[in-house]
Amino acid sequence: MHMKERCIRIRAVTTAQRAQEKLRDAGFTTRLFRAGEIGGCGFCIEVMGDYEEACRLLKKQGVRFSVMQEGEKR
Amino acid sequence: VIYLDNAATTFPKPPAVIEAVRRTLQQEGGNPGRSGHRLSMQAAERVWQTRKKLAAFFGCASEEQVIFTSGCTAALNMAVFGLLRGGGHCLVSSMEHNAVVRPLQALRRRGVRWEAFAVDPFDRQKTLAAFAARLRRDTAAVICTHASNVCGTVLPVEAMAHHCAERGIPFVLDAAQTAGVLPIDMQDTPYSCVCLPGHKGLYGPMGVGVLLLGEGVQLPPLIYGGTGTQSLAAEQPQDLPEALESGTVNLPGIAGLEAGVDFVRRRTREKLCSHQLQLAQKLHRGLAAMEGVSLFAPEPMPGLAVGTVACRFEGVECEEAVRQLDARSIAVRGGWQCAALAHETLKTTGTGVVRLSFGAFNTARQVDTVLQAAAKIVRGVQESAPLGRT
Q1: Chain A residue with minimal CA distance to B41?
Q2: ipTM of model
Q3: SS3 of B246, please?
Q4: Residues of A in contact with B241 (CB under 8 A)
Q5: Mean pLDDT of chain B
Q6: How far is the first Cα of chain B from the last one, in angstroms, to the nearest whole number?
Q7: N or C: less crowded end of chain A, CB within 10 Å?
Q8: For residues B248-263, b (16+ Cβ closer than 10 Å) or e, as one string?
């Protein structure tokens, strides 16, 4: 079954790195990359797997992020 | 050379530190987090790993509260100017370095009033009592060195920090002489800020320091500019640590610092501390037994001192003693060590001292050589500088 990739937007690289680590620790496969259009520059974490669960986990960790809508330009 | 100026900077550096710096300059030299290409992201990963190691080593609650600076002085300036931006009373120890005193003096023009409590190198209880007596209801911050950079005396900072936390007063720790040497745990002790150099007890290269922020501590930036995030906004972004790290961070320095932290963890901080202390004890005892040598602190003991000894040779000016030791290939520091307040405390303002400070690579045999050289200096035996030296 193909797992859909969806992205989480985070403004600063260190927060994004911490978020990626939390997700990895929880068993998610992720990829961190730089992305535009968040007030100029920011970062995205591509998440494979249960996207909603990933978002819940990050909220619980106090990570500030926004969700990237499906089909939205990266 | 017998290098005994480790309180100024540890030397030599471990091979892994040199290799880490070389690797970033030759292979991994992208600008961390500024671009999406591999080298930039790889550099960002190096910076992140270093933040993680520092946060774990010092019990800092989050990697985002690990701020890279150009050194301990820059970290102290950020803490001093940030915590005292509204003016108010600031209490410091009488052992402070100019990295604390000079920013405070500059802030006098902005309404900051600062004073020093007396440190007694021979009596910690007296020091604690002097601290408590000077603390005021309107004290806006306490800034205290963990150990004197002149004589190595360790101050009872844990007790002071708890005392301050109970009263809601921010406590700033200057860990210039102790990071990587003495235990510093922000989980156990409520430090608001811990300022530390990368190039001393953590064995990194010069040009990198760290400001560790306690939970809930917010400081405004001293330097504004590019953070690699929110580039279209004219306002400085708020996200830590980037908000306080404008401009490109020192990647080779940070990579070297990471290797330095690894070195300290491998050797263990406890063993490194004990090694330096034993050498300082041996030196202190040897000097104490010599006629014509003055010492300014008790024999270094665990928990009460770091591996630094301050002395003076009767009838020999400090810089002259440094020159004579250098002629025997022994590197030490003379003068006032950028710490006027500490010299006032030790009553050495008129003369300065000769400071000998130990690191991981010093040996007991070196101490024997230094003691032989000290005996010659006291007896007035001159040694000419080696050929080719100026």
Answers
A1: A33
A2: 0.85
A3: coil
A4: 14
A5: 95
A6: 16
A7: N
A8: ebbbbbbbbbbbbbbb
